[in-house]
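User: Can you recover a sequence for this backbone? Please restate the input before giving your answer.

Assistant: Of course. Working from this structure:
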């Protein structure tokens, strides 16, 4: 798990730094733990095979901690920030997909797909704060939409934003446990790590003629029936799989 690897890198780098500073603190640079700890952390991160995007996180983590400590903030602020992050990102530590929001362009492209599919129902697996489902519900008032979200704060915002929109049903649930059999379109914006599990779930549960639309991440073991590239963001693709 990447989070545990990252934590191990930081702790090992700290231990290495403290040992070096204690033994060789008189040598140039080695008396600058705030500089060498991040470098060790990056080195360890590469050795542990973490993705490249962890490098800036490892580089800035300890310096950021040091800067914040200089502010002498009261202890409850740390607890409040930690609680807020847990309530937003919820299962991310145990490997769930974190919150990223789709742009209005995704919702517009999905509208075209939904129109062509003549969809009567749609589910967003991990609906976030409703960036996709709310514009869709307004554009297709006849379509029944289900928005499943399990992180508490996104779910609260989603529920509040969907109040009064009669064709959206908001569920605080784990989407892996949610049956997909009744939906014409399943929308997902998740992560590469869960795509094979998603493919298997859709293969087992989707009815004939239903469509899986996966934003950004393709299924590894299936060729899409079509791929929609967004005009405004050419690198962003909607991968469509007909069942
Ligand atoms: C990348 S965001 C996508 C949000 C939204 N669909 C959009 O396109 O703007 C993924 C969302 O899935 C939620 N999520 C991750 N795993 C989940 C699970 N097992 N059950 C329900 N929601 C989940 C996260 O909390 C997050 O809000």
């Amino acid at each position: 798990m990447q989070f545990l690897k990252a934590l191990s890198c930081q702790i090992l780098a700290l231990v290495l730094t403290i040992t070096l500073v204690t033994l060789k603190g008189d040598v140039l640079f080695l008396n600058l733990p705030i500089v060498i700890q991040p470098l060790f952390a990056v080195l360890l991160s590469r050795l542990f095979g973490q993705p490249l995007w962890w490098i800036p996180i490892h580089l800035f983590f300890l310096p950021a901690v040091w800067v914040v400590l200089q502010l002498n903030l009261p202890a409850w602020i740390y607890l409040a920030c930690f609680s807020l992050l847990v309530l937003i990102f919820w299962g991310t530590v145990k490997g769930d997909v974190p919150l990223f929001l789709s742009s209005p362009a995704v919702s517009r492209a999905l509208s075209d797909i939904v129109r062509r599919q003549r969809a009567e129902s749609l589910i967003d697996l991990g609906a976030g704060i409703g960036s996709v489902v709310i514009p869709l519900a307004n554009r297709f008032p006849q379509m029944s939409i289900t928005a499943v979200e399990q992180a508490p704060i996104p779910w609260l915002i989603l529920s509040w934003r969907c109040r009064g929109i009669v064709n959206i049903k908001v569920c605080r649930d784990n989407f892996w446990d949610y049956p997909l059999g009744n939906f014409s379109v399943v929308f997902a914006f998740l992560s590469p790590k869960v795509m094979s599990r998603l493919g298997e779930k859709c293969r087992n549960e989707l009815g004939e003629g239903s469509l899986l639309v996966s934003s950004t991440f393709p299924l590894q073991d299936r060729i899409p029936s079509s791929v929609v590239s967004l005009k405004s963001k050419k690198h962003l693709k909607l991968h469509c799989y007909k069942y």
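That completes the design. Helices lie at 2-24, 33-47, 54-70, 75-89, 104-117, 133-139, 152-162, 195-205.
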